[in-house]
Amino acid sequence: MEIENILKQQKDFFKTHKTKDVNFRLKQLKNLRKAILDYEDKIYDALYKDLKKSKYHSYLNEIGIVLKEISYAINNLKKWSKDKKVNSGIFFLSKNFIKSEPLGQILVISPWNYPFNLAICPVIGAISAGNTIILKPSEISTHTAKVIEEMITKYFDEKYFKVILGDSKKTSKLLDFNFDYIFFTGSENIGKIVMQKAANNLTPLTLELGGKSPCIIDKDIDLDKTASRIINGKFMNAGQTCVAPDYLLVHSKIKDKLIKKLIEKIDFFYSKDIKNSNDYERIINEKHFNRLINYLKDVNIVYGGKNDIKDLFISPTLIDMKNIDDINNNKIMKEEIFGPILPIMEYNNLDEAIEFINSKPKPLALYIFSNNKKVQEKVLNETSSGGSCINDTIIHLTNLKLPFGGVGQSGFGAYHGKSSFNTFSHKKSILKNTNFFDIIMRFPPHKDSGIKILNKLMK
Protein backbone atom coordinates (compact mmCIF):
# COMPACT_ATOMS: atom_id res chain seq x y z
CA MET A 1 0.00 0.00 0.00
CA GLU A 2 1.25 3.49 -0.84
CA ILE A 3 2.44 5.65 2.04
CA GLU A 4 -0.21 8.27 1.22
CA ASN A 5 -3.02 5.74 1.71
CA ILE A 6 -1.62 4.49 5.00
CA LEU A 7 -1.31 8.03 6.31
CA LYS A 8 -4.87 8.85 5.25
CA GLN A 9 -6.19 5.72 6.94
CA GLN A 10 -4.41 6.64 10.15
CA LYS A 11 -5.69 10.22 10.09
CA ASP A 12 -9.23 8.95 9.54
CA PHE A 13 -8.88 6.45 12.37
CA PHE A 14 -7.58 9.11 14.73
CA LYS A 15 -10.64 11.22 13.95
CA THR A 16 -12.86 8.46 15.40
CA HIS A 17 -11.38 9.37 18.84
CA LYS A 18 -10.96 5.69 19.75
CA THR A 19 -7.32 6.21 20.69
CA LYS A 20 -8.33 8.75 23.33
CA ASP A 21 -9.96 6.00 25.39
CA VAL A 22 -7.52 5.00 28.14
CA ASN A 23 -8.82 1.42 28.06
CA PHE A 24 -8.06 1.26 24.33
CA ARG A 25 -4.49 2.40 25.01
CA LEU A 26 -4.05 -0.16 27.79
CA LYS A 27 -5.29 -2.88 25.45
CA GLN A 28 -2.72 -1.87 22.81
CA LEU A 29 0.11 -1.87 25.36
CA LYS A 30 -0.86 -5.35 26.52
CA ASN A 31 -1.11 -6.43 22.90
CA LEU A 32 2.41 -5.11 22.28
CA ARG A 33 3.71 -7.03 25.29
CA LYS A 34 2.08 -10.24 24.02
CA ALA A 35 3.59 -9.69 20.57
CA ILE A 36 7.09 -9.29 22.00
CA LEU A 37 6.79 -12.41 24.16
CA ASP A 38 5.52 -14.43 21.20
CA TYR A 39 8.34 -13.14 18.97
CA GLU A 40 11.07 -13.29 21.62
CA ASP A 41 13.07 -16.07 19.97
CA LYS A 42 12.91 -14.39 16.56
CA ILE A 43 14.10 -11.13 18.11
CA TYR A 44 17.06 -12.91 19.74
CA ASP A 45 17.98 -14.46 16.41
CA ALA A 46 17.73 -11.16 14.54
CA LEU A 47 19.88 -9.28 17.06
CA TYR A 48 22.53 -11.98 16.82
CA LYS A 49 22.56 -11.77 13.02
CA ASP A 50 22.79 -7.97 13.04
CA LEU A 51 25.29 -7.38 15.87
CA LYS A 52 26.19 -10.82 17.23
CA LYS A 53 24.40 -10.01 20.47
CA SER A 54 24.16 -12.89 22.90
CA LYS A 55 20.77 -13.93 24.25
CA TYR A 56 21.71 -12.50 27.66
CA HIS A 57 22.73 -9.10 26.27
CA SER A 58 19.71 -9.03 23.97
CA TYR A 59 17.40 -9.46 26.93
CA LEU A 60 19.36 -7.12 29.21
CA ASN A 61 19.73 -4.22 26.78
CA GLU A 62 16.86 -4.68 24.37
CA ILE A 63 13.87 -6.92 25.19
CA GLY A 64 13.96 -6.65 28.99
CA ILE A 65 14.12 -2.85 28.94
CA VAL A 66 11.16 -2.67 26.57
CA LEU A 67 9.04 -5.07 28.66
CA LYS A 68 9.87 -3.06 31.79
CA GLU A 69 8.81 0.15 30.04
CA ILE A 70 5.52 -1.40 28.91
CA SER A 71 4.70 -2.66 32.42
CA TYR A 72 5.52 0.74 33.90
CA ALA A 73 3.20 2.45 31.42
CA ILE A 74 0.37 -0.02 32.03
CA ASN A 75 0.64 0.44 35.80
CA ASN A 76 0.68 4.24 35.65
CA LEU A 77 -1.31 5.24 32.56
CA LYS A 78 -4.62 5.97 34.30
CA LYS A 79 -2.84 8.27 36.74
CA TRP A 80 -0.85 10.03 34.01
CA SER A 81 -3.91 10.63 31.84
CA LYS A 82 -6.10 12.21 34.54
CA ASP A 83 -6.83 15.91 34.28
CA LYS A 84 -4.54 17.88 36.56
CA LYS A 85 -6.23 20.56 38.67
CA VAL A 86 -4.43 23.86 39.23
CA ASN A 87 -5.18 26.93 41.35
CA SER A 88 -7.88 29.21 39.99
CA GLY A 89 -5.95 32.47 40.31
CA ILE A 90 -7.79 35.76 40.03
CA PHE A 91 -11.05 34.09 38.92
CA PHE A 92 -11.35 32.28 42.23
CA LEU A 93 -14.65 30.47 41.56
CA SER A 94 -13.50 29.06 38.23
CA LYS A 95 -12.23 25.53 37.70
CA ASN A 96 -8.78 25.27 36.11
CA PHE A 97 -7.14 22.12 34.87
CA ILE A 98 -4.65 20.72 32.38
CA LYS A 99 -5.84 18.02 30.02
CA SER A 100 -3.39 15.65 28.34
CA GLU A 101 -4.53 14.91 24.82
CA PRO A 102 -2.83 12.98 22.01
CA LEU A 103 -0.93 14.90 19.37
CA GLY A 104 -2.21 12.76 16.49
CA GLN A 105 -0.03 10.97 13.97
CA ILE A 106 3.50 10.15 15.14
CA LEU A 107 6.56 9.25 13.07
CA VAL A 108 9.27 7.34 14.94
CA ILE A 109 12.64 6.93 13.19
CA SER A 110 14.95 4.53 15.01
CA PRO A 111 18.68 3.64 14.74
CA TRP A 112 20.62 0.43 14.25
CA ASN A 113 22.76 0.14 17.41
CA TYR A 114 19.97 -1.02 19.74
CA PRO A 115 17.54 -1.76 16.93
CA PHE A 116 14.73 -3.26 19.01
CA ASN A 117 14.95 -1.17 22.18
CA LEU A 118 15.27 2.20 20.46
CA ALA A 119 12.48 1.40 17.99
CA ILE A 120 9.88 0.18 20.48
CA CYS A 121 10.52 2.33 23.58
CA PRO A 122 9.37 5.59 21.93
CA VAL A 123 6.38 3.73 20.48
CA ILE A 124 5.29 2.83 24.04
CA GLY A 125 5.04 6.54 24.83
CA ALA A 126 3.14 7.24 21.62
CA ILE A 127 0.63 4.46 22.37
CA SER A 128 0.26 5.57 26.00
CA ALA A 129 -0.56 9.12 24.94
CA GLY A 130 -3.22 7.94 22.44
CA ASN A 131 -1.61 8.52 19.05
CA THR A 132 -1.36 6.56 15.82
CA ILE A 133 2.16 5.52 14.82
CA ILE A 134 4.36 5.09 11.79
CA LEU A 135 7.65 3.39 12.71
CA LYS A 136 10.63 3.54 10.36
CA PRO A 137 13.39 1.23 11.68
CA SER A 138 16.97 1.54 10.45
CA GLU A 139 17.65 -0.33 7.24
CA ILE A 140 21.19 -1.07 8.47
CA SER A 141 20.05 -3.55 11.15
CA THR A 142 18.15 -5.47 8.47
CA HIS A 143 17.19 -8.61 10.36
CA THR A 144 15.74 -6.85 13.39
CA ALA A 145 13.83 -4.40 11.20
CA LYS A 146 12.18 -7.27 9.32
CA VAL A 147 11.18 -9.04 12.53
CA ILE A 148 9.69 -5.85 13.95
CA GLU A 149 7.74 -5.31 10.72
CA GLU A 150 6.44 -8.89 10.75
CA MET A 151 5.49 -8.69 14.44
CA ILE A 152 3.65 -5.37 14.22
CA THR A 153 1.84 -6.36 11.02
CA LYS A 154 0.55 -9.51 12.73
CA TYR A 155 -0.61 -7.86 15.95
CA PHE A 156 -1.75 -4.37 14.90
CA ASP A 157 -4.05 -2.82 12.32
CA GLU A 158 -2.01 -0.61 10.00
CA LYS A 159 -4.56 2.18 10.30
CA TYR A 160 -3.33 2.44 13.89
CA PHE A 161 0.32 1.25 13.89
CA LYS A 162 2.37 0.58 10.78
CA VAL A 163 6.04 -0.28 10.23
CA ILE A 164 7.57 0.97 6.99
CA LEU A 165 10.85 -0.56 5.79
CA GLY A 166 13.25 0.95 3.30
CA ASP A 167 16.45 2.91 2.79
CA SER A 168 17.24 6.57 3.40
CA LYS A 169 15.16 7.56 0.34
CA LYS A 170 12.08 6.07 1.98
CA THR A 171 12.84 7.96 5.18
CA SER A 172 13.24 11.19 3.21
CA LYS A 173 9.90 10.63 1.51
CA LEU A 174 8.20 10.02 4.86
CA LEU A 175 9.60 13.28 6.19
CA ASP A 176 7.88 15.18 3.38
CA PHE A 177 4.49 14.38 4.90
CA ASN A 178 2.82 16.45 7.56
CA PHE A 179 3.02 14.46 10.80
CA ASP A 180 1.90 15.81 14.15
CA TYR A 181 5.18 14.83 15.81
CA ILE A 182 8.51 13.27 14.84
CA PHE A 183 10.72 11.30 17.18
CA PHE A 184 14.22 10.68 15.80
CA THR A 185 17.13 8.77 17.31
CA GLY A 186 20.42 8.80 15.42
CA SER A 187 23.43 10.83 14.43
CA GLU A 188 23.78 14.60 14.61
CA ASN A 189 24.23 14.89 10.83
CA ILE A 190 21.01 13.02 10.04
CA GLY A 191 19.29 14.86 12.88
CA LYS A 192 19.95 18.14 11.12
CA ILE A 193 18.28 16.82 7.95
CA VAL A 194 15.27 15.59 9.93
CA MET A 195 14.93 18.98 11.64
CA GLN A 196 15.12 20.84 8.32
CA LYS A 197 12.42 18.61 6.86
CA ALA A 198 10.23 19.01 9.94
CA ALA A 199 10.57 22.80 9.70
CA ASN A 200 8.84 22.77 6.30
CA ASN A 201 5.62 21.67 8.02
CA LEU A 202 6.33 23.31 11.40
CA THR A 203 6.31 19.80 12.87
CA PRO A 204 7.50 19.57 16.50
CA LEU A 205 10.04 16.88 17.20
CA THR A 206 12.38 15.16 19.61
CA LEU A 207 15.99 14.60 18.56
CA GLU A 208 17.90 11.93 20.49
CA LEU A 209 21.42 12.35 19.16
CA GLY A 210 24.78 11.66 20.79
CA GLY A 211 28.10 13.37 21.05
CA LYS A 212 31.39 12.89 22.79
CA SER A 213 30.44 11.93 26.33
CA PRO A 214 33.42 12.64 28.63
CA CYS A 215 34.45 10.68 31.69
CA ILE A 216 36.42 12.48 34.44
CA ILE A 217 38.42 10.29 36.82
CA ASP A 218 39.62 12.02 39.97
CA LYS A 219 42.59 10.75 42.00
CA ASP A 220 40.27 9.90 44.92
CA ILE A 221 38.43 6.82 43.61
CA ASP A 222 37.79 3.14 44.14
CA LEU A 223 40.18 1.98 41.42
CA ASP A 224 38.75 -1.52 40.95
CA LYS A 225 35.09 -0.49 40.72
CA THR A 226 35.94 2.50 38.55
CA ALA A 227 37.74 0.32 36.00
CA SER A 228 34.95 -2.28 35.95
CA ARG A 229 32.24 0.31 35.37
CA ILE A 230 34.16 2.18 32.67
CA ILE A 231 34.99 -0.99 30.73
CA ASN A 232 31.43 -2.28 30.98
CA GLY A 233 29.93 1.05 29.88
CA LYS A 234 32.40 1.64 27.07
CA PHE A 235 32.62 -1.79 25.46
CA MET A 236 29.01 -2.88 25.83
CA ASN A 237 27.68 -3.46 22.30
CA ALA A 238 31.26 -3.01 21.04
CA GLY A 239 31.13 0.66 22.00
CA GLN A 240 28.14 1.34 19.73
CA THR A 241 26.15 3.10 22.44
CA CYS A 242 25.14 6.76 22.29
CA VAL A 243 25.97 7.32 25.98
CA ALA A 244 29.18 5.26 26.09
CA PRO A 245 32.17 7.11 27.59
CA ASP A 246 33.82 8.62 24.53
CA TYR A 247 37.10 9.59 26.19
CA LEU A 248 38.69 9.62 29.64
CA LEU A 249 40.17 12.61 31.46
CA VAL A 250 42.27 11.02 34.20
CA HIS A 251 44.13 12.73 37.02
CA SER A 252 47.86 12.44 36.29
CA LYS A 253 48.58 10.83 39.67
CA ILE A 254 46.54 7.70 38.88
CA LYS A 255 46.64 7.48 35.08
CA ASP A 256 49.16 4.64 34.86
CA LYS A 257 47.44 2.67 37.61
CA LEU A 258 44.06 3.10 35.93
CA ILE A 259 45.32 1.96 32.52
CA LYS A 260 46.77 -1.15 34.10
CA LYS A 261 43.49 -1.87 35.87
CA LEU A 262 41.44 -1.23 32.70
CA ILE A 263 43.50 -3.81 30.82
CA GLU A 264 43.04 -6.25 33.68
CA LYS A 265 39.27 -5.82 33.52
CA ILE A 266 39.11 -6.25 29.73
CA ASP A 267 40.97 -9.56 30.03
CA PHE A 268 38.71 -10.66 32.87
CA PHE A 269 35.40 -9.67 31.25
CA TYR A 270 36.08 -10.91 27.73
CA SER A 271 39.07 -13.30 28.26
CA LYS A 272 42.30 -13.00 26.30
CA ASP A 273 40.50 -14.64 23.38
CA ILE A 274 38.08 -11.75 22.97
CA LYS A 275 37.02 -12.74 19.47
CA ASN A 276 35.39 -15.89 20.80
CA SER A 277 33.80 -14.25 23.81
CA ASN A 278 30.03 -14.64 24.00
CA ASP A 279 29.85 -11.20 25.63
CA TYR A 280 31.41 -9.12 22.87
CA GLU A 281 29.45 -7.88 19.88
CA ARG A 282 30.50 -6.91 16.35
CA ILE A 283 30.59 -3.69 14.34
CA ILE A 284 27.37 -3.25 12.37
CA ASN A 285 28.88 -3.13 8.85
CA GLU A 286 32.04 -2.55 6.77
CA LYS A 287 31.42 1.18 6.43
CA HIS A 288 31.54 1.71 10.18
CA PHE A 289 34.38 -0.81 10.53
CA ASN A 290 36.55 1.19 8.12
CA ARG A 291 35.60 4.46 9.80
CA LEU A 292 36.78 3.11 13.16
CA ILE A 293 39.99 1.56 11.83
CA ASN A 294 40.88 4.96 10.41
CA TYR A 295 41.03 6.31 13.96
CA LEU A 296 43.84 3.90 14.82
CA LYS A 297 46.37 5.51 12.50
CA ASP A 298 49.15 7.55 14.12
CA VAL A 299 48.03 6.98 17.70
CA ASN A 300 49.67 5.32 20.70
CA ILE A 301 47.74 2.07 21.22
CA VAL A 302 48.47 0.69 24.70
CA TYR A 303 46.05 -2.20 24.40
CA GLY A 304 44.03 -3.88 21.66
CA GLY A 305 43.78 -2.70 18.09
CA LYS A 306 43.21 -6.20 16.76
CA ASN A 307 40.66 -6.40 13.97
CA ASP A 308 39.16 -8.64 11.30
CA ILE A 309 37.01 -7.07 8.59
CA LYS A 310 35.54 -10.44 7.55
CA ASP A 311 34.13 -10.88 11.04
CA LEU A 312 33.54 -7.12 11.59
CA PHE A 313 35.61 -7.51 14.74
CA ILE A 314 37.58 -4.77 16.47
CA SER A 315 38.95 -5.60 19.88
CA PRO A 316 38.60 -3.23 22.87
CA THR A 317 41.29 -0.64 22.25
CA LEU A 318 42.90 1.82 24.66
CA ILE A 319 44.76 4.84 23.28
CA ASP A 320 47.14 6.87 25.42
CA MET A 321 46.91 10.50 24.42
CA LYS A 322 49.84 12.10 26.23
CA ASN A 323 48.12 15.41 26.82
CA ILE A 324 45.08 17.47 25.89
CA ASP A 325 46.81 19.05 22.87
CA ASP A 326 47.42 15.60 21.35
CA ILE A 327 43.77 14.60 21.52
CA ASN A 328 42.48 18.04 20.56
CA ASN A 329 44.40 18.00 17.29
CA ASN A 330 43.62 14.38 16.44
CA LYS A 331 40.76 13.37 14.11
CA ILE A 332 39.48 11.08 16.85
CA MET A 333 38.01 14.18 18.54
CA LYS A 334 36.21 15.45 15.46
CA GLU A 335 33.15 13.23 15.89
CA GLU A 336 31.62 10.69 18.24
CA ILE A 337 33.73 7.51 18.13
CA PHE A 338 30.78 5.10 18.45
CA GLY A 339 32.98 2.03 18.64
CA PRO A 340 35.36 0.09 20.90
CA ILE A 341 38.13 2.70 20.98
CA LEU A 342 38.84 4.63 24.17
CA PRO A 343 41.25 7.60 24.18
CA ILE A 344 42.81 8.35 27.57
CA MET A 345 44.41 11.65 28.51
CA GLU A 346 45.56 13.17 31.76
CA TYR A 347 44.92 16.40 33.58
CA ASN A 348 46.65 18.01 36.56
CA ASN A 349 43.85 20.13 37.95
CA LEU A 350 40.09 19.90 37.67
CA ASP A 351 39.64 23.33 36.11
CA GLU A 352 41.75 22.17 33.18
CA ALA A 353 39.48 19.17 32.59
CA ILE A 354 36.30 21.21 32.92
CA GLU A 355 37.60 23.86 30.54
CA PHE A 356 38.35 21.18 27.96
CA ILE A 357 34.85 19.69 28.24
CA ASN A 358 33.23 23.12 27.98
CA SER A 359 35.21 23.88 24.81
CA LYS A 360 33.26 21.09 23.09
CA PRO A 361 29.55 20.78 22.20
CA LYS A 362 27.35 19.72 25.11
CA PRO A 363 27.43 15.91 25.41
CA LEU A 364 24.55 13.49 25.86
CA ALA A 365 26.15 12.15 29.04
CA LEU A 366 28.93 13.11 31.42
CA TYR A 367 30.57 10.75 33.91
CA ILE A 368 32.44 11.59 37.10
CA PHE A 369 34.41 9.15 39.21
CA SER A 370 35.35 10.65 42.55
CA ASN A 371 34.78 10.06 46.25
CA ASN A 372 35.14 13.79 46.84
CA LYS A 373 31.74 15.51 47.03
CA LYS A 374 33.26 18.90 46.24
CA VAL A 375 34.71 17.51 43.02
CA GLN A 376 31.36 15.94 42.11
CA GLU A 377 29.46 19.18 42.74
CA LYS A 378 32.01 21.33 40.91
CA VAL A 379 31.83 19.22 37.76
CA LEU A 380 28.02 19.07 37.80
CA ASN A 381 27.70 22.82 38.44
CA GLU A 382 30.26 23.94 35.88
CA THR A 383 29.37 21.68 32.94
CA SER A 384 26.24 20.95 30.92
CA SER A 385 25.12 17.55 29.60
CA GLY A 386 21.96 15.64 28.80
CA GLY A 387 22.42 13.44 31.86
CA SER A 388 25.13 12.32 34.22
CA CYS A 389 26.33 9.51 36.45
CA ILE A 390 28.57 9.81 39.48
CA ASN A 391 30.83 6.79 40.05
CA ASP A 392 29.23 4.81 37.24
CA THR A 393 28.39 4.88 33.53
CA ILE A 394 25.20 4.44 31.49
CA ILE A 395 22.95 3.15 34.28
CA HIS A 396 21.04 6.44 34.64
CA LEU A 397 19.04 5.19 31.65
CA THR A 398 17.59 2.34 33.69
CA ASN A 399 15.55 4.54 36.04
CA LEU A 400 12.22 5.23 34.32
CA LYS A 401 11.62 8.17 36.65
CA LEU A 402 14.63 9.98 35.16
CA PRO A 403 13.96 11.74 31.82
CA PHE A 404 16.48 10.73 29.17
CA GLY A 405 17.47 13.22 26.50
CA GLY A 406 20.13 15.58 25.22
CA VAL A 407 20.93 19.26 25.40
CA GLY A 408 22.37 21.52 22.71
CA GLN A 409 23.93 19.51 19.89
CA SER A 410 23.26 16.21 21.68
CA GLY A 411 19.55 16.71 21.05
CA PHE A 412 16.43 17.98 22.73
CA GLY A 413 13.29 16.47 24.21
CA ALA A 414 13.22 13.54 26.62
CA TYR A 415 11.53 10.20 27.14
CA HIS A 416 11.23 7.06 29.32
CA GLY A 417 8.43 6.54 31.80
CA LYS A 418 6.11 9.50 32.32
CA SER A 419 8.44 11.66 30.22
CA SER A 420 7.47 9.53 27.19
CA PHE A 421 3.78 10.11 27.90
CA ASN A 422 4.40 13.85 28.22
CA THR A 423 6.48 13.99 25.03
CA PHE A 424 3.66 12.56 22.92
CA SER A 425 0.87 14.54 24.63
CA HIS A 426 -0.38 18.09 24.27
CA LYS A 427 -1.03 19.75 27.63
CA LYS A 428 -4.21 21.68 27.02
CA SER A 429 -5.01 24.41 29.55
CA ILE A 430 -8.70 24.75 30.39
CA LEU A 431 -10.56 27.32 32.52
CA LYS A 432 -14.24 26.71 33.27
CA ASN A 433 -15.73 29.87 34.71
CA THR A 434 -18.75 30.19 36.96
CA ASN A 435 -21.96 31.97 35.99
CA PHE A 436 -22.69 32.73 39.62
CA PHE A 437 -21.29 36.26 39.41
CA ASP A 438 -18.79 38.49 37.56
CA ILE A 439 -15.96 40.71 38.65
CA ILE A 440 -17.57 43.89 37.39
CA MET A 441 -14.37 45.90 37.22
CA ARG A 442 -13.00 43.66 34.45
CA PHE A 443 -15.44 45.29 32.00
CA PRO A 444 -15.37 48.84 30.58
CA PRO A 445 -15.79 51.63 31.38
CA HIS A 446 -12.75 51.61 33.66
CA LYS A 447 -11.79 54.17 36.31
CA ASP A 448 -8.29 54.86 37.57
CA SER A 449 -9.60 54.55 41.12
CA GLY A 450 -9.98 50.82 40.53
CA ILE A 451 -6.22 50.29 40.17
CA LYS A 452 -5.76 49.83 43.94
CA ILE A 453 -8.36 47.05 44.03
CA LEU A 454 -6.90 45.53 40.88
CA ASN A 455 -3.45 45.63 42.44
CA LYS A 456 -4.67 43.62 45.44
CA LEU A 457 -6.40 41.08 43.20
CA MET A 458 -3.32 40.65 41.02
CA LYS A 459 -1.15 39.98 44.06
Shape: globular
Output the radius of gyration. Answer: 25 Å
CATH superfamily of the largest domain: Aldehyde Dehydrogenase, Chain A, domain 1
Strand order of the largest sheet: 10-13-14-9-8-15-16
Characterise the protein shown here.
- This protein is α/β, with parallel strands linked by helices.
- It folds into two domains: about 5-210 and about 410-430, Aldehyde Dehydrogenase, Chain A, domain 1 (3-Layer(aba) Sandwich); about 215-405, Aldehyde Dehydrogenase, Chain A, domain 2, CATH 3.40.309.10.
- Helix content is about 40%, strand content about 20%.
- It has 16 helices and 20 strands.
- It has helices at about 5-15, 20-40, 40-50, 55-80, 115-130, 140-155, 170-175, 190-200, 225-235, 255-270, 285-295, 325-330, 350-360, 375-380, 420-425, 450-459; strands spanning about 85, 95-100, 105-110, 130-135, 160-165, 180-185, 205-210, 215, 245-250, 300-305, 305-310, 315, 315-320, 340-345, 365-370, 385-390, 405, 410, 415, 425-430.
- Strands 10-13-14-9-8-15-16 form a seven-stranded mixed β-sheet, sandwiched between helices. A six-stranded mixed β-sheet has the order 5-4-3-6-7-18, with helices on both faces. Strands 1-2-20 form a three-stranded antiparallel β-sheet.
- Strand 3, helix 5 (about 115-130) and strand 4 (about 130-135) form a beta-alpha-beta unit.
- Helix 2 (about 20-40) crosses helix 6, helix 3 packs across helix 4 (about 55-80) and helix 3 runs antiparallel to helix 6.
- The radius of gyration is 25 Å and the shape is globular.
- The relative contact order is 0.13.
- The mean pLDDT is about 95.
